[in-house]
Amino acid sequence: MSTPLYIGWQRIVDGQGLEIAFTGMFIVFLALAAISFCIAMLPKVMASIGGILPESPHNPTESESPHDDEAVAAAVGFALDEKNNNR
Amino acid sequence: MTILYDFLSASGLASATWGHGVMILIGMVMIVLAIVRRYEPLLLVPIGFGIMLGNIPMMEGDGHGVYDEGSVLYYIYFGVREGIFPPLIFLGIGAMTDFSAMLSNPRLVLLGAAAQIGIFLTLLGAMAIGFTPAESGAIAIIGGADGPTAIFLSSKLAPHLLSMIAIASYSYMALVPIIQPPIMRLFTTREERLIRMVSPRTVSQREKIIFPIVAFIIAAMIAPDSVVLVGMLFFGNLLKECGVTERLANTARTSMIDIVTILLGFSVGASTQAEAFLSLESLFIFALGVVSFCIATSGGVLFAKFMNLFVKDKINPLIGAAGVSAVPMAARVAQVEAHREDPQNFLLFHAMGPNVAGVLGSAIAAGILWSVLVGV
User: Fold this and answer.
1) What CA–CA distance (Å, rounded) separates B149 from B364?
2) What is the pLDDT along chain A (87 residues), one digit of tens a residue?
3) Do residue A28 and residue B133 have CB atoms under 8 angstroms apart?
4) How far is B370 from chain A (nearest CA, A)?
5) Are B204 and A11 an interchain contact pair (Cβ–Cβ within 8 Å)?
6) Half-sphere exposure of B292 (CA within 13 A, CB side)
7) Taking the domains of chain A in order of start, what are their residue ranges?
8) What phi and psi, each to the nearest 5 degrees, are found at residue B70?
9) What pTM value is reported for the model?
10) Which ranges of chain B have pLDDT less than 50?
11) Backbone dihedral region of B130: left (phi > 0), alpha (psi from -120 to 50 degrees) or beta?
């Protein structure tokens, strides 16, 4: 039993498994910790730029969405079609 | 009579082996699980049917299979083989993901990092068993519980294991409600499971718009090889949140992701060949996959308990299990487990934080493994 265990350990050592695992885990933590830190800072940044760039009072999706454009275009098209048919 | 004999000898029945039968049965089981038990039906139905199709015995030279150059399936499988489909799926996931839960409680992001320990410990296990470092990396990513990431990485590191890794990954994602709860209960006390978390703050629309840009730059700078997956994820999210590209976001999260899911699931299923699939190697892959999943789950739960040693507003450790990706299944499991102890405890929103962080963590882990192990 000790031989296969030894062989397994040797394979990990030869393949630099420990280095890859530790470094990989460290980088994942570093990246997500950095993102977490930036998220935590976001409200403060928002507050500080709030005076310069106030948040838009309206949501663009409510009045300027492409769906609305399409609806307007469809309505215009329908009206023109009706007008042409009446001539 | 000769014509009839020739026809029968050229039929699938004549060249069928027990392996084909077993694989067709596996395909049927997946379809039944999807339809009857509702386990990830959008994935298991295409994969299950693909497995059945891929294991209909064909005569040499028929050229209809996934690996036969020029066949229809060959071209569909191209998207899997070359790692094209997974980033497109990430685009759709980004366009349907609401990061509010994560933004309202940023410390929960760390749970998504902790759960990635399953990937890196399984890497060591696979190496010890005798897989090459590249194969080990591809197998280990199963612990990320993210099918597209697993397919993407295995297409780069170990294409010959892709079908086994993909099936293992999607199977375990579907089995999250069965695999995770015993581990969650094992590592938590009843008192911990009863913890009610404080209500999160409201996140402004502007924060939601800035987040994908900032997070993308950070993740891409720290782990550049994750740029394909992470970039598509955050690009999709920006389409969703910016408010001026609703049509694009809508296409990405509906038609596009559905089309890619069909093509990916079906062709991955069809790529399973009885001769390669029914082997000792795939048994090891499935075993390592479940170990990876269990370690990832326990890693998230234990790290939540560790964080509770330092924080004032306690975290319910059950949401640590949602640090494995499997969105939103893992978050739902955390909710169900909490609900079992206290019907008035609603953890779903809190669990979505580590859940989406897990997607990010597994994509970064995949990028790291790709950069370190490719060509090894």
Assistant:
1) 10
2) 445 667 888 999 999 999 999 999 999 999 999 999 999 999 888 888 776 666 665 454 444 455 556 667 767 776 777 666 665
3) no
4) 11
5) no
6) 35
7) 1-55, 58-87
8) 100, -15
9) 0.86
10) none
11) left
Q: Are A25 and B209 in contact (CB under 8 A)?
A: no
Which residues in B lie closer than 8 A to residue A36 (C-beta atoms)? 106-107, 109-110
Residue-level pLDDT at B63: 77
What's the CA gap between B13 and B33, in Å, rounded? 26
Cα(B157)–Cα(B151) distance, integer angstroms = 10
Which is nearest to B166 in space by CA: B179, B150, B155, B153? B150
Cα–Cα distance for residue pair B200/B100, rounded to 1 Å: 9
Q: Which of A29, A38, A59 is the closest to B113 by Cβ?
A: A29
pLDDT for position B275: 83
- The residue assigned the tokens 């730029």 is A49
Place of tokens 């069909």: B262
Please judge whether B127 and A17 are an interchain contact, meaning their C-beta atoms are less than 8 angstroms apart: yes
Q: Is any Cβ of chain A less than 8 angstroms from the Cβ of B157?
A: no
CA pair distance B185, B36, nearest whole angstrom: 27
3-state DSSP helix/strand/coil percent for chain A, to nearest 5? 80, 0, 20
Question: Which of the 8 DSSP states describes residue B320?
Answer: G
- In the prediction, which pLDDT does A22 show? 96
Amino acid at B308: N
Chain A residues touching residue B121 (CB < 8 angstroms): 21
> Which residue does chain A place closest to B116, by CA atoms?
A25
Query: Could you tell me if B368 and A28 are in contact, meaning their C-beta atoms sit under 8 angstroms apart?
Result: yes
Q: How many residues does chain A have?
A: 87
Closest C-alpha to B124, from B145, B149, B143? B143
